[in-house]
Amino acid sequence: MKQFWAGSSISKNKAMVEQLQRYGIIQSKKVAEAMESVDRALFAPDGSLAYEDSPMPIGFNATISAPHMHATCLQLLENNLQPGMHALDVGSGTGYLTACFAHLVGPQGRAIGVDHIPELVEMSIKNVEKSAAGPLLKDGSLALHVGDGREGWPEFAPYDAIHVGAAAPEIPKPLIDQLKPGGRLVIPVGNTFQELKVVDKNEDGSVKVCTETSVRYVPLTSREAQLRGY
Ligand code: SAH
């Protein structure tokens, strides 16, 4: 009997994107297209659960965020992820969101991921290589580095978009400094009680901070504290 496909990864990933659109979390074609192109199963530790809307442990006391959080952050940053722009993903973990950023800013742009766990960075590179963003890693417009993301990544600053995938006790100053005028930073702030903050830098260098929603992320901390279990 002929069978052209059976619950292929690609069709399940598309179904996940359609659900996010139905719930109004994905509102734009561009975000839908980026999440359709970058197959989440290549980044999730357990492929069979890859499309469920929940965070999943990835080792080293870290998690891959739930699809609705990835979609929310992509929506918030969409205007700052146009072709040719510079994006920084702090706490890049699996590399999923960095790959989506790279897809949006394209070969003329820069998408930089930074995580302080070398094993996770190594794993994220392998994930990206398998994904639709693989060629962007090869040509250097996407890069994943080991470092303390609280310091940002000055090499490609200033950034149009900065995303932080871990909750900071307060907004790290280097990240604000590395934001371009007109740039936007999306960062969870707090300890047990956390809020997703949107920081917009005005043309005169001043910043405006808004609260988007309450969230639950792992902390943005030192490598030692994270490996100790905080
Ligand atoms: N966006 C990622 C989230 C991973 S969880 C994903 O969905 O895959 C948060 C990540 O932040 C972890 O990988 C953790 O190692 C990293 N992290 C925490 N504190 C950090 C710091 N000071 N510098 C860099 N990375 C940090």
UniProtKB/TrEMBL annotation:
The lineage's top-level taxon is Eukaryota
Q: Which GO terms describe its biological process?
A: methylation; protein repair
What EC number(s) does its UniProt record assign? 2.1.1.77
Q: Does the keyword Iron apply?
A: no
Q: Which UniProt keywords apply?
A: Methyltransferase, S-adenosyl-L-methionine, Transferase
Keyword Cell membrane attributed: no
Per the record, its GO cellular-component terms are: cytoplasm
**This chain belongs to which protein, by name?**
Protein-L-isoaspartate O-methyltransferase
Species, as recorded? Helianthus annuus (Common sunflower)
